Batch of 2 targets.
Target 1
Amino acid sequence: MKLIRFGEQGKEKPGVEIKGKRLDCSGFGEDWSEDFFGSDGLNRLEKWLQQESSQLPEIPQSIRLGSPIKRPSKIICVGLNYSLHAKESNMPLPEVPILFMKATSSLCGPNDPIIIPKNSTKTDWEVELAVIIGKKASYLDKDKAMDHVAGYCLHNDVSERDFQLHHGGQWVKGKSADHFAPLGPYLVTKDEIPNPHDLRLWLKVNGEMMQDSNTSDLVFDIPTLVAYISQYMTLLPGDIISTGTPSGVGLGLKPPRYLQHGDVVVLGIDGLGEARQEAKDFGKV
Ligand code: ZN
């Protein structure tokens, strides 16, 4: 299944996409939230759709898409999880996964603008495969980890490099501004992605290919990450794990290049769709 949410920001309604048609699932009576995933919602929704899908109202393609999941308890990101990206960042390849958090208030729709924050000079892009947790997970063994995954999304881990690296303390400052986590277009359930470790992921800025890699190059794979993170915190249904970005970010270019008002970012991952985001200065949105 492909889950979407649509409508005005903050007032999104749940839906699904079936064979390219977007269908309104308001009649199911639940949003795609922690409660939904944590109460076997995907299986219940699948059964409901078998009865109802032919009668559901179709949503026009012009309607805004929101984040395909309702704001979850946390967004956990993995740093330097592709070897060439660690190299371009002048950092050593990690021996254990590097983790940092991103404020959940940074979530937005896949085609919403990237807002360049106040006082920003170094807003950068990062295409990433995001894993969505389907079942509460604590102290997992690696061989059980995939049972706790609901599916996958396309994510742009938008980053302000000056805030991230030169404002003291942790990376969280450079990762958490509003609209720094465009997610979607949809959540694709894991049954539709038989091998998440062989997906091309790419990102263009103003039509120019900047990142073009494959999840086969992940340093730490998905079961390793889910099990590892669950040793430090309980993962709740709906939580997002963003698995890291490949090389080709603005920071790694010589000279570095950052997003300017009017730049257009287009990104995609095999099977997870595409997204388009226009950069806009704070105050001009
Ligand atoms: Zn990242």
Target 2
Amino acid sequence: MRWFLLAAALLAAYVSATDLAHKQQTINQLLYKSTEPIRSKFAELKELAKGWDPLSHKHHCSDGGHALEVLVHEVEQGNMLVKKHWFSLFNERHREEAVMLVDALLSCTDFNFFKGHAAYFREHMNEGEFVYALYVAVTHSDLTSGVILPPLYEVTPHLFTNSEVIQRAYTAKMTHTPAKLQMEFTGSQKNPEQRVAYFGEDIGMNSHHVHWHMDFPFWWQGHHIDRKGELFFWVHHQLTARFDAERLSNHLPVVDELYWNRPIEEGFAPHTTYRYGGEFPSRPDNKEFEDVDGIIKVRDLLETESRIREAIDHGYVTSKDGKAIYIDNDRGIDILGDVIESSMYTPNFQYYGALHNYAHIMLGRQADPKGKFSMPPGVMEHFETATRDPSFFRLHKYMDNIFKKHKDKLHPYTTNDLLYSNIEITDVSIDGELVTFFEDFEFNLINALDDTEQVEDVPVSTTVHRLNHKPFDYDIHFNAKYDAVATVRIFLCPKHDYNDIELSMDEYRWGCLEMDKFWVDAHYGENHLVRHAHESTVTIPDRTPFEDLIKQADEAVANDSDFPHQNYRSCGHPARLLLPKGNTKGMEFLLFVAVTSGDDAALSRPTVGEHGGAHGYCGVRGEIYPDKRPMGYPLDRHIPDDRLFDVGNIHVSTVKVYHKKH
Ligand code: CUO
């Protein structure tokens, strides 16, 4: 009997491993050269697409085929966006069409039907819509759990590199000369913003950002996503705080917020081309906002903003049926996030509008607000490209300050709230040095270039500079009065402002970077905790190159072997960007460590497993957020006096971040 059970278990493991390899291979093939028909070398997929009749598989849909019918109807009526046209999620109709495919794929009850529909619609829909929908569906479908999404910068490279690189890539292709092209950051050294372009244009950070919006789409109407509004606040708050830390590292003041009734100080020339639709529009310095014809007026944004500020002052948001939803509590930030973004969770779209989404469009269209020149959308209208534009951080600082207004109104934590009397931290230090450096990173451009199946590919790639840091560990010593699970929270905070004036806790708290948060078993007596930086629960390691994913999946399928399990999510801040750049002399930061009660955990066994990896900024797929406390706790509220934090379970020390040229 035991042998039988063992054999059955082995068989199940074997089937699921090879099953995963097949799924990975399918997703790879669907995304390979996505602007061209499915390659003939993927014969099975190509045949499947050719002979597929979506509606004959309605009984394999959880909704009885409703989503599928809607999509098929639109395709058959010729209502869909044509192929070889730009796609923007902020375009209402584009979004509707993409979401039709997401819904159809998510309704599949078996992967074979997911595959058939995806193959079919790949050939019948706009490429941009298809890629977006497939990424979202793979992210959310249980049928594809374990599948690694290829790096977006290798699937849609146009949105991650610049026009010059693309042109030179074509030259390489036309002349059949393999090429490794150096990509430079946008702009010139005459522009002070250039000093921090390495952050705004970092392809890993951009990938994290676009994936965050795929994990938490504002249009999402599926299963309830826990604390989605608060995560919107937190992930963007952290992006802003991290950008500010990079600015301080580069002798720039922290970013100022955007004002609708003042000029946008920084212009931006993206030097980037759509695959279809020409150049991304540029914006000169000091552009005054103009209404965007037929979409959004400056006046409406001001009105929306003042309604939201009023709700904060009142301490309640008014729902669409006129009821007060009180927000001066821990839940308030989540509701405000839903309101400000705004997502389908907003309690009153009619009254509070969609400040964030319209702001992206407003900024994206300032080069051609009247639509006179038929320009395509600006970089701000794509999550892939938005952070390149300095106005992105101004916009998000503006919204961040609205969130801050709410947080500042909440009652400050008292010493009693902060104290966890079981724990006394005796020492915190860094093992190794905090050292950052620039390195070159290469990614493949094969998918950027049109070609035919008859002509062999020429290897073309591009190399970008990117920030990285040396490995380091946190060394934390503490005493515990009894055995218990404890929550460890680590932040890195700016110590000085731009003028080198030391900041008080209340001044620096809003600029703190979440470095890590995890749960440990504290034992009675002395404890010595060594935590590696690479274990951080806000970051993910480098993404697997598309070429490697293809090779690994193909080999696993050919040999009926395991697909190497790579345990990371697509959403997550790049591990190599965990530290801000610092400077050559060693820039002082504060290392803030708080050990609080394990009761903070929302999960029953917080010390077991990694809870999906990058849960700090990205939550846990399909589960509740693992920490019950407000995101940013205990630095999220106003601190009237630093001495309130004089408790044994909180430790603040000064560390230095060195930047080395090599
Ligand atoms: Cu992520 Cu504005 O929300 O870009």
